[in-house]
Amino acid sequence: QVQLVESGGGLVQPGGSLRLSCAASGSSFSINAMGWYRQAPGKQRELVAAITSGGSTNYADSVKGRFTISRNNAKNTVNLQMNSLKPEDTAVYYCNARHYDPIATMFYDYWGQGTQVTVSS
Q1: Nearest one of 1, 3, 5 to 114, comparing CA atoms
Q2: What is the pLDDT of residues 48-69, one digit of tens each?
């Protein structure tokens, strides 16, 4: 019901920067929050950063101070500015959009296909 289109991944040297973007389309309801997750080979998927419709943000400890998440006024796009990149940031990054159904009291999560970020010299 919701399609997420990601862009901005690629290869960058340690200390470099990348900006990831994600646009949501096809929704017939409000999206309560959007965020970025990442998964490295052999590791579990982890939350990198998220932002609510009200503008509240949270970050993984490993990226705090280096990454910044933002959204547009329409609340259907989300960006992740990644600075001071480290080899340990190498992973597939996935865009996430979350909708809360107050009747069912549950969240519905939608995911992008992922974009590869490789930090290597």
Answers
A1: 5
A2: 999 998 899 999 999 999 999 9
